Amino acid sequence: MALRDLSLQSARSLRKSSFPRSFRFRYNVSRNASTTTHDQDLEPSSSLSIPAPSSDLVKDFDPAERARKRRAELGRELPPSRYRFRSPKYYRGPLHPHQPPPPSDPTSRQFIPGPFSLPRLEQTYHSTIAPDLMTLAYTHFPPGYRAPPKAPRLRSWDETSPYHKNRPLRAPRGHTVLPLLRPPITWQNVPRLERVTVHAMVREALEDKSHLHVARMVLQAITNVRVTTHRAKGSVVGWGLREGRQVSVSAEVNGGDMWDFVGKCVDMVLPRIKDWQGVKGSSGDSSGNIAWGLGPADVALFPEVEVNYNMYPPKMIPGLHVILHTTATNDREARLLLSATGIPFYGKQVN
Amino acid sequence: MNRLKILRSAPSTFSGLPFRPRASNALPLFRPSLQNPFPIQSQTSPFSSTACLLKRKKQRVKQDIRVRHIKFHLAHPITPRPLRFSRHRALRHWTIHRAWHTHLSQVRRARELDLERQYESMKGACEALRTLGEDGIGYTIARAPEPNEDGTVPLQKAQEGGEGLVVIGGSGKGEGGKELGRLYRLAMEKKGIWQGVPIEYARIQTDTPGREGWDHGWKR
Fold this sequence. Notes:
Low-confidence stretches of chain A: 1-31
Strand order of the largest sheet of chain A: 2-3-1-6-5
Radius of gyration of chain B: 49 Å
Largest interface: A-B, 69 and 59 residues
Keywords (chain A): Ribonucleoprotein, Ribosomal protein
Structural class of chain B: mainly alpha
Helix content of chain B: 25-40%
Strand content of chain A: 5-15%
Shape of chain A: extended
Largest sheet of chain B: 2 strands, antiparallel
Helix content of chain A: 25-40%
GO biological process, one term (chain A): translation
Strand order of the largest sheet of chain B: 1-2
Number of helices of chain A: 11
Mean pLDDT of chain B: 72
Number of helices of chain B: 6
Number of strands of chain A: 7
GO molecular function (chain B): structural constituent of ribosome
Number of strands of chain B: 2
Oligomer: heterodimer
CATH superfamily of one domain in chain A: Ribosomal protein L5
GO molecular function (chain A): structural constituent of ribosome
CATH topology of one domain in chain A: 50s Ribosomal Protein L5, Chain: A
Structural class of chain A: alpha+beta
CATH class of one domain in chain A: Alpha Beta
Strand content of chain B: under 5%
InterPro entries (chain B): Ribosomal_mL40_fung
CATH architecture of one domain in chain A: 2-Layer Sandwich
Order of helices and strands of chain B: HHHHEHEH
Largest sheet of chain A: 5 strands, antiparallel
Low-confidence stretches of chain B: 1-34
Mean pLDDT of chain A: 86
Distance between the termini of chain B: 88 Å
Shape of chain B: elongated
């Protein structure tokens, strides 16, 4: 383009100065046919008419020096203009000189773009459920209240026997391990959903591995995360289980996927299960994690499985365990959170 | 040679098989086993004169084609290569990433502040109920309760206050009447709270909620 402009300019100047037309000039004109006919349509000004930079600018122009100064100011190098870095394919430990970039960096192999949606359940939690829970569980402490000191949680031995010397402390009353503390709920520690573990033990996988593959695919479709396969820790003769065989699959769901998964369960799957009473009231590990099970027929109700039901051999669709991990430290509060989310409970509630 | 002649004359009579269309100039050499006194036992491969032992084929369970597809797609190494950004695009991405995280932290902070505001107002309301006079107009000032030896005040003691109440305003009553602190006691009740939220209320927000909140007459 610049070359064309140049020839245009030269042509115009040449014509003005009534210079005898040389062969070369004629050649140029004939090549750019538009120059003669549409001369007035063209922009008269060009980059050549712009005055040259001033002398002091020219004198100061030192790109290398500028880059050095910029580096000194920033303390580090700017990302290069061309691609240079390649994230290592395998993590070789913290002492290796080649470290992968953080997952938020698009050059990282763990980089996931997004989020592209705002889950409804998350919005509901922040707008409705959290304030409700805080209000429901509110305990009033008048000003000036200071909690009385409690006895130590791990009791010591009364030194009635010489064998009590150097023993570890006694376990707490009624427990073999220390139960989690239960601080009063304030605006800082309203129980919330932390993560969901979806787990399926596939007993048929002992005979036929294809059950395991189907279970992996179903779990991956439902949860939108990559699935982990687990091996049997020990042998159980009665079940035909042998140590080291792959028998179960699980998926850890966090963040937006977690909200989506629970929302799907509450809105689309659980209401359509036949004769489903709810989650059993005694479910839970007494530290705020609540679980329930879904049969193979119920797993087929998940929309991802349902729309593509023919993709899976129907007899191989597994049953699942869904474990909801909450930040509540006891089952009572966790159950309150889940019931506010829309998961009903039935039977005697055990805390 | 003699046998060949016989065959030529009437081959179908020798075969002992049902009727076969007979080619006019069919060479009898094509079916030697019919009359061969030493037939090759169980020949499977063509152009081979040796007998190969027939291994019993293993009964293979035929795998479902869907399982094959599932296996293929689960094991397929389609890990995308990492993105490559030039300087300007990397800077642009970094800027947007930081802005997004700043926005998220602002949203989180706003939520926390809102919850704190609600908590504080709840606390103020409960404190007002606690110090409300018997007639609901005046308010009582509980004298500071006597602390224990270690300087702490148990909850029961702190709520009841010290010896005698100072009543300000109202009718002046309030010296430990039945109505004193009744609203506060009611507000502090936790009856039925841990039974859970009613299912009609525990519903996820939607863009298009139904006109009827809950269909109580629904039956399967």
